[in-house]
Amino acid sequence: MKKIVLIAMVLLLAVGVVFAGGSKDKAAATTKDGRPTIRLITDATGIDDKSFNAAAWRGILEYYGDTWENQSNRGTLYDVVTCQTQDMYIPTLKQVSDEGYDLIVTTGFTFADALNEVAQLYPDQKYMIVDVDYVNQPNVMQFMFSEEQGSYLVGVAVALQAKEDGIANPKFGFIGGVPGATITKFEIGYIQGIKSIFPDAQIVDFYANDWGKPELAKTQAKNWFDSGVYAVYSAAGGTGSGTIAQAKEYRQQGKNVWAIGVDSDQYADGIYSGDKSAVLTSMLKRVESSTKYALDAVAKNTFNSGVVLLDMAADGVGYSAANPELSAAVVEKLEALKADIISGKIKVIGTYKEALAAGIAPAGLGAMDN
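Structure (tokenized):
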């Protein structure tokens, strides 16, 4: 009897070692109805950033037929893990990879190095990452967006709004999170859109070097609004909520200033009275399309490594017309410009180097191309 018990214990220990070592037996992960399982891994701002991470999460919810209010499949088919610091990226990726989900999603270029390292350790695990095209592992699907195209449209929108308000020499601000090539596309597209209406417009920028410090954006936006800046566009994750908060305060006081949202439609976040919102428009970066795309590929067994570009033609980027104070004439103009971008008639620059060479962007910005 003791011999039988000993053999059983050895077998159990052996099984435990296999699972701890990251065995990729997908039968434990894939559901009986064939739907894949997924884990989203975010930075410290989490899915409540009302921006980038929220959009990725929204795509997951939509794929499984859930909503923000009713996440009935959470904890079984899908869930999220939030890393409070960057030094948690690698251990978190390893831990989740050991758990055997069909797809693991990371959001943003700050995960690139960690994912590149971990993906090589788990060659049978499928991963996807957003805003990166250089993690060239055979098990990683990468998604890129043409942020400069959508940013061009919101730049035009706020410039036309300033013109309708009769502002002769409006100034405009841009707040970025962590500088890098992706955020540069937001800034340069925005500047190009503004300068298509006001060629001599003054542009100021500020980088918070953080995705989760709204107090930095709020202080900077206040300083700029006080100095005569008409609108501030933030591509800074949760940090950008500070811009919206300051714009709300000032519009409640009757000051004619605007915030411009990013990634998700942030119109509702800017509401301060009735349907009045301090967010004139938002650059829509449909990150939700990428998570749904990857999940569908896993389910259909068509998942491939490489880069998927979601540009304006693919409905990957756009703008919001939710705010009724964005005039019908402005929206009509934006729709015409959108068609010209899709057709190639308008080419939107996406790098600081090109923008400097073309005389579009001023020298001394915080934008970086790498």
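The first helix runs from residue 2 to 20. The first strand starts at residue 38 and ends at 42.
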